[in-house]
Amino acid sequence: MTTRSIIPQWRAGALAIALGGAGLFLASIDFAINVSLPIIRDSFQTNLVSVQWIIIAYHASRSSLGFAAGGIADRFGLRELFLVGVGSYTIAVGLISLQSDLHGVVVLRALQGVGAGILFTAAPALVTRAFRPSERGTALGITLAAIAVGQIVGTLGGGWLSSNLGWESIFWSRVPIGAAIFAIALIALKPTKTPEVAAV
To answer: How far apart are alpha carbons 188 and 22 in whole angstroms?
Structure first.
């Protein structure tokens, strides 16, 4: 194997880990919602049972899509699926931060759950397809560590944001992150339906 062929392979693997990890980090930040429920309840002047629909709508849509996401990627391409996941998630959190009604938040949380479900499926797939079987365990381990980081950041940061800037901040603060991931993936990943992840 020549040096010329090693560099693109290394770059594709690094890109897959970076984008996959970033996507999982973005989806995992949603732990911020758990510590912010009392503030959201008080803001909408409702009860905790009603506010819990924010979590139910999210997890219902996220879980139901996971079964279909793999087949969608095989049909339309993994890059396209990843972009749809990041895009729908980012649009949803941006719109949620603008809502003044709990029903609007619940509906948009379902859209956010769709995006999260796609990310939890597409992100590991990016890494799996970029590495040989002997390297996938290490690559996936590095990528999946982003989930733990996202949960910690979401829990600690979410409490601070919602207490100091309002519950809306735990949603709009994710928009720049999602937009950056979307832009990088759009530019760096080439459209492909092949098992390999192609990088510029």
So the answer is: 14
Question: In which residue are the tokens 């800037």 written?
Answer: 165
DSSP state of 199: B
Q: Hey, which residues does 189 pair with through a beta bridge?
A: 199
- Provide the sign of the torsion angle of the four alpha carbons 121, 149, 198, 79, taken in this order: positive
Read off the pTM: 0.85
What separation, in Å, do the N-terminal and C-terminal C-alpha atoms of the chain show?
20
Categorize the per-residue pLDDT at 70 as very low, low, confident or very high, splitting at 50, 70 and 90.
low
User: Tens digits of per-residue pLDDT, 146-179?
Assistant: 999 999 998 888 889 988 999 999 999 999 999 9
Residue whose structure tokens are 């909408």: 44
Residues 64, 62: Cα–Cα separation, whole Å? 6
